[in-house]
Design goal:
The chain is mostly helical. It folds into 2 domains: 2-104; 107-195, Alpha-Beta Plaits (2-Layer Sandwich). The chain is built from 7 helices and 3 strands, in the order αααααβααββ. The chain has a 3-stranded antiparallel sheet with strand order 1-3-2, with helices on both faces. Strand 2 and strand 3 (189-195) form a beta hairpin. Helix 2 (18-31) runs antiparallel to helix 3 (36-57) and helix 6 crosses helix 7 (156-173). The radius of gyration is 31 Å and the shape is elongated. The protein starts with a helix and ends with a strand.
């Protein structure tokens, strides 16, 4: 808004200085695109006040110049809004893709519990925390014996159903602060640690 106040001091032939206003509006839109409607409001107020100051404060500005300024401000506002909106869409979709990628890298696709790598990271963190506060915890490892026979006899779909049901049963028995994880369907070892 300080720039608008300076419009009073500008020469009557204002068209050369409208580039400054266009750059300011583009900086408003592209500065922080996550708050698009807030910045759109600021850019609109800046544009309206610029046109008002050019028409009211500088009586000698030719009418075609005022129309050129008005048209350029409208175009830059519309363009800035559309481009910023598109950038926000791409940022949001990129964030969701990274979130999904992170989940795929840390969770088992079949059962939805943490994979072995993530389990080891979480357990290491928990061990460090528990050593610091001189606490203990329980680590339980369960091996589903002869699981290969289920796959061989009833098929992999039935084996998958057994693993899912097993994880559901485990999840009903542990607290939200506990962690369950699987080391893969190949050897079917599922583990979790439990804070005491």
């Amino acid at each position: 808004m300080l720039i608008n106040v300076l419009n009073f001091t500008r020469p009557a032939y204002y068209i050369g200085y409208s580039i400054i206003d266009i750059v300011i509006i583009l900086l408003i839109y592209f500065g922080i695109p996550n708050r698009i409607f807030f910045w759109m409001l600021i850019a609109a107020v800046h544009s309206i006040s610029t046109v008002f100051l050019v028409t009211a404060a500088q009586d000698t500005t030719p009418v075609p110049t005022i129309y050129a300024i008005l048209l350029s401000l409208i175009l830059v506002n519309v363009g800035g809004f559309l481009i910023t909106r598109r950038m926000s869409y791409y940022k949001r979709s990129q964030f969701l893709a990274f979130q999904e990628l992170d989940e795929l890298a840390s969770k088992d696709g079949l059962t939805g519990i943490y994979n072995r790598r993530m389990f080891m990271e979480l357990t290491e963190r928990e061990l460090t925390r528990l050593k610091r506060y001189d606490k203990s915890f329980t680590l339980l490892v369960i091996d589903l014996d002869e699981f290969k026979r289920i796959n061989d006899t009833h098929g992999h779909l039935e084996g998958d159903a057994v693993l899912k049901k097993f994880v559901e049963i485990v999840d009903t028995q542990i607290r939200k602060t506990d962690c369950s994880a699987g080391s893969g369907a190949k050897n079917s070892v599922y583990c979790w640690w439990k804070r005491i």
